[in-house]
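Entry 14. Ran structure prediction on the chain below.
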Amino acid sequence: AVVSTQSTGIDSINNITRKTDVIGSIDPYVIVYANDKLLGKTKPVNNTSSVVLNELITFKTKGDPKTAKLSFTLMDKDDIGDDDEVGSGSFNPAVEESLTNQLVHLKYKGKDIGSISITMNIRDIPLI
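Output, structure tokens:
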């Protein structure tokens, strides 16, 4: 039997145009889901609309790992009150030719608000 591990690198957050704070830029972080199951989130970064993250989120999959549809929610960390959703997007590895340096376009209420860059790696681990 073989178990696949899939790691999704959140490479960067790019040119976010939506503001949820009155003063300054957002404090962005990304929440990652596979097939609507929470996988993890990146650390928040203070006061920026573009940032290189290079954070890796790894998970195990049964069956073909390319069937795991990924979705991403960009959040704005707030010290007071609840964090705000800035936008969201998805990535379906089954229909992509390449899994590296992919742009995931983020939308909020139908409007483009920027993107994140991701890289996916899939590794098969034989079970002995």
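The mean pLDDT is 92. Will compare against last week's run tomorrow.
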